[in-house]
Amino acid sequence: MADIIRLLPEYLANQIAAGEVVQRPASVVKELLENSVDARSSSVTLIIKDAGKQLIQVVDDGVGMTETDARMCFERHATSKIKTTEDLFRIKTMGFRGEAMASIAAVAQVEMKTRARGSELGTCLSIEGNDIIQQEPVAMGEGTVVSVKNLFFNVPARRNFLKSNPVEMRHILDEFQRVALANPEIAFALYQNEVEVMNLPAGKLSQRIVSMFGKEYKEQMASCEETTPFLTVKGYIGKPEFAKKSRGEQFFFVNNRYIKSQYLNHAVLTAFEGLLPKDSFPFYVLFLEIAPETIDINVHPTKTEIKFEDEKTVYAIVRAAVKQSLGLHNIAPSLDFGADVNYMPLQPMKFPASMDFETAPAQAPRASSAMNHTTTFPSRASAGSSRDDSYSDFAPTREVSRANSDDSSLFPEEEDSFAPAKSTMTGGSKTLQVHQKYLMVQVKSGLMVVDQQAAQERILYEKYSQALGKRTGASQQLLFPQTLQLSPADFSLVMELSEEFTALGFVFNDFGNNTLVVNGIPAEIPLRDEKELIEGLLEQYKNNLSAMKVDRQENLARAMAKRVASRLTGRLSDQEMNALVDRLFGCQVPNYTPSGQKTLVILQTEQLQDLFLRS
């Protein structure tokens, strides 16, 4: 049998390696910016054209390279960062693998100009697909200029898989933000298609945060600092009242390297427990300094994942640092034990007069296990099928017995659950609202309980899906336009989805500096905090991106339905309850939300009888 195993050609091996390191233009931006930071630069400029597909250029004033180093940096596993195995566990530089430049050169046309400090001339090197085209001396200032052109020019399949320009630019902005935040002592600038997007002067971390995210962050930042022999935590957290519905501005840096860690994020959220509104996320930029030998950053080529030797201790220290910061800035509630506090005496519990406990049996019989009976639900109706037959067994009946509806003690008001309440079952009503969350409807087979919010979500989802498909969304104009300051990434996401937002009924204009002026929102949405609505919608959209594989119209329809449905809660009139049930059964799939949650439950008559132990 002939030998069949052979070494891959160098150009092919480099292209395979590039698949791990260079996934999109943002990957190139990350590697080049980190190289500039490692080169001890004081000023770094990033120039982008066509969202990085045409040009990615990084200009720095770092130490530069000699002619030999300029050629060597494009060889695989060539690096100045480490020399021995021990160095691998004492890494403090951003790069160390020696793969980035070789991987970039394998899938792009690269031109590098560099001049080492103290040298009279620099070197200009042109590489295409790992082949050196030319190398010649050049007159230039000290530092390095790397230009990456026509990314994936020799791998057309990879280029075709790139997303739209707004999507790729959003990822580039994320990488730029992370490197700029980690190094506030370095001046950074970003230009997109010859337009200045960001210009961040060198300064303190607080100044960098304000320059990057906006002046309103001045009043919402609280410093956070904790020093222990094991770990040092420094940075800033946001005050709870400024929490947003999107989780954009949350950053962890370990030894100045940006990392992603749900574990540490949970530590911060635990410290904020009881201080944040529902579905809100705090701002934080936290730097962790820890001995390099106690962590492992050599987990993934992107180097955003990290392993701690003692992660429980890190969790505890981060949580304690944030909690202490909240207390020092008088954010967390505290007890003053020296104060003279007069506590009100406990009031006796009041019951309706109609309830006579003396004549009640000593012990009520327990409900039988019928509560656990399995309820059979109708199968989902297909988009084109008729719903009359599918739901005829439990369609709401028009007549409701009101023989006992005058007993006001059966329907307590929410304001005082023990006080007698008036019945909400007025003449002609077929529906009863319970705790402003559920609707009870008499049906032929028994009793149907509808989750009010889930039903709204199903109805709105089908409405918004139709509006996005036909571009027919209606708007309601705001009396006073609202300005909305977004993070660069969220602003880029809004621009990316601008057509879909318009189709839903949003009316907004670009006000510059990542700011929107909102003039109108979709019709039938309560006019209340448009900023929260849009932030929540963006957060839900991003959550859906990570949880499911659907196109952006489907994603946006789901996100919009979920966020708007959360607003349409509270007390409903008889007409509104009846209309809600009718609209639910007008949907194509009335018994489930888009995510698969039940909108209704049927209690059969037999089950109700079993609850009262009737034979």
UniProtKB/TrEMBL annotation:
Residues 362-426 are annotated as: Disordered. Gene3D superfamilies: 3.30.230.10, Histidine kinase-like ATPase, C-terminal domain, MutL, C-terminal domain, dimerisation subdomain, MutL, C-terminal domain, regulatory subdomain. Residues 209-327 form the DNA mismatch repair protein S5 domain. Keywords: DNA damage, DNA repair, Endonuclease, Hydrolase, Nuclease. It comes from the Bacteria. GO terms for molecular function: endonuclease activity. Pfam families: DNA_mis_repair, HATPase_c_3, MutL_C. Residues 369-378 have a biased composition (Polar residues). InterPro entries: DNA_mismatch_repair_MutL (IPR020667), DNA_mismatch_S5_2-like (IPR013507), HATPase_C_sf (IPR036890), MutL/Mlh/PMS (IPR002099), MutL/Mlh/Pms-like (IPR038973), MutL_C (IPR014790), MutL_C_dimsub (IPR042120), MutL_C_regsub (IPR042121). Belongs to the DNA mismatch repair MutL/HexB family. This protein is involved in the repair of mismatches in DNA. It is required for dam-dependent methyl-directed DNA mismatch repair. May act as a 'molecular matchmaker', a protein that promotes the formation of a stable complex between two or more DNA-binding proteins in an ATP-dependent manner without itself being part of a final effector complex. This is DNA mismatch repair protein MutL. It comes from Rufibacter sediminis. The gene is mutL.
